[in-house]
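[RESIDUES AND BACKBONE]
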Amino acid sequence: MVDAVILTVSVTALLLAAWCGFAAYRDSPTKDWHFIGMAVVTLAALVQLVVSLVQLARGERPEHGMAVFLAYLIGAACTIPSAAFMSLAERTRWGSAVVAAGGVILAVLELRLHEIWGSGHG
């Protein structure tokens, strides 16, 4: 998997987590700007999904299991949209906290994807 894509998704996810975490700290629900940020992070995760599928189609394989890799890849693509829907249902500071947690979870999923793919493949 391309390391630059993993790094981009991880950094944008952590930036979103910090931004929404600060909103939760200020007792603020998610706002339109937060949803734009969520869209950017989701777009990065979808780019990663496409890049990974192209690599798999070219015959490249993860070192530590295809099923586990695909499960993490799909989970990574669904994390921020799921958090966004939950924040819409909870229009308090806790909606912002959910998105912040989603950003941290996505960053952890990215680390795991990197490990499953194998760091020797770039």
